[in-house]
Every structure is written in structure tokens, then in C-alpha cells.
Specification:
With 268 residues, the chain is α/β, with parallel strands linked by helices. Helix content is 30%, strand content 17%. The protein has a seven-stranded mixed beta sheet, with helices on both faces.
Length: 268
Amino acid sequence: MKQIFCIKWGSAYGPRDVNILYAMVARNITGPFQLHCFTDNAEGVRSEVICHPLPELGCEIPPDVPGKWPKIALWGRELFGLQGVALFIDLDSVIVDNIDCYFEYGSEDDVITARNWLNLLSKSCQTSVFRFKIGANAYMLDNLRADSATISRKYQFEQNYVTHNVRGGVKFWPEKWTRHFRVHCLGSLPFRYLRKAIIPKGAKIITFPGLPGPSDAVHGRWTEDSEVLTAKENLKRVWQLYRKGGKWKRQLSCFMHRVDWIAEHWRE
């Protein structure tokens, strides 16, 4: 039985995001699986998903610290009686190909993650997609609880804490499997004006750290409030902002064409 985990709290993601993740996994996995969702609100989540309460972090993270620190609670010694290996997938991920390989790669005792493609020199990880053995790294939560303010301020983001504190070091998926939307699909200037975002060859899961998310990229916009413009219209807006001393660099970089393949894969 392949186990997939996701976590949902607050209002950033809704039940539709969980339901879409379940459907994407079902279309791209071989054999039986279970999707476990840890959430503060299970209303609207399809019945096939096994919902659990949010596991207790057991400590306070200072309000000025960024990052998704509640995810560290999944590393606890006990997790609602669950055992074995689990693959965690963020709700703003798009599965584009079969993911069986994520369960077959490496040792079951390894902590395997995606690379942080925005900070390659530091060899840090990105926990949008990671695999771990339940309860095997409980010291990660114990240590955070012992000095949560110091640790969270030092590392800022939970993925940095994971990178530098997993004993024996984290392992990385083969590079082609887990791709970053902005880096590998959208590309840098001027490519995002000249072509639509692509699915890189060999990609299995596309992650969307930061902005845009798949729900906006599918429409060709950076955020829900962004105006959808053609390349020509956006460049005209950039010129207008430049002349007025506005934020033209952001307008220039935060552009994309409509991404039709997201609609093909990111659906129930």
C-alpha cells in the first residue's frame, strides 16, 4: 500500500485542492494507495481521502518567522498509528506522469527530497515533495520543541531546518523527476514572452513554490487579482510604469501565457 500525505490548514487551500491531488495520484500510480490529509477542516474532502486532525507541533513559532513550520509535526514519533514509508506532496503540485518511482528510489530509511532550485549552491532541499519513514526522525520535532524560537529564526524556512538537521543528510530525487514551475517550465526572460510554459522531458511532478500557483498559472496570471494580458499588452504596461517611475521590473517578470497543460493534469 503506497501512502501519500498532504497537509491543509487555514484558508490558503480548500477541499478542492485535496480532491484534485487525490485524482492526480489515482491517474498516475500503480496498485493500491491511500491519501492521508492532515487538516483543521475536512469538510468537502472526498470520502476516499483519509482525513486526520493536524498533528500537534507542540511549540510556538514566532509570528515574524516565515515558512510552513506546521509540516515539521509530521516528523513526530507517533502519527495517528500510521507506519512505514510515506510520500508527502504539497497541494500546489501538479502530477504529470507516473509516480511509482518515488516509492522505489533509494532506501526506505532515506529522507529524499526535491532540490531547492533557487539556491543550488547551498545544496538545500525543497520539501514540496519528500519521502520519509514515519517516526524514524522524531528528533527533528523534539529538537524544535526544545528551542523553537532560536531554531525557527535561524533557519527561517522549515525546509532549511530539514536540510541541515536530518542525520546523515537528505538525499535528492533524480533531477528530471521533480521540477520547479518558474525555473524549469516558465523559464527566464525573454522565454516567457516567446513561448508558453513547457513540461520538461522526464518530469513527474511540477512544484509551485511561491507564486504563481497552478490555479492562477492555468489562466495565464501571476495572482488571483492579476489582470490577464497578452505579451504585447504587458510590455505596453511595463513601458507605462517605467515612464511613471512605477514597479516596471515586477510587471516585466510576472508574465506568462495561459498554461493549458495544467488544466489537463490538475483536475478531479
